[in-house]
Fold this protein.
Amino acid sequence: CDYTTEMCTNGEGSPFCECQPGFVRRSNGCIRKCGSTGLQPQISHGGWESNGCDNKVPGETCAVTCDAGFQPDHLGASQATCQDDLTWTMPPNKQATCISSSTVCDPFDTNTSGAEKFLCTPSGVHVGNTITLS
């Protein structure tokens, strides 16, 4: 075992190495992990990926997941990145948010069949995707 990052544990019949607390095993050994401390604590109508962000290491990301009927707001942050100093960062001035998947706005203020509509934030800001009503 590399005793700076691992500890030796006696298993049934033979000892084995496992990572020290605060480290997680990767192909190149035990690496210090970010954990979930420092992530945006509350995401309305969502959270962080279901398998958790506790075992992420520098360079890895943790994605926003949204409840059924919601999607990440494309104008916000859709993921956080674990940094070398074990902190999490998101794009500057961005927060992770989930918006209703069915929120649309009509640039022509019509509701006729075949009208093009844009996906928007609840405040009516266009987020780039378009749909055609049938």
Remarks:
- The two ends are 64 Å apart (CA to CA).
- Confidence is low (pLDDT under 50) at residues 108-113.
- The chain is about 0% helix and 40% strand.
- The longest strand covers residues 126-132.
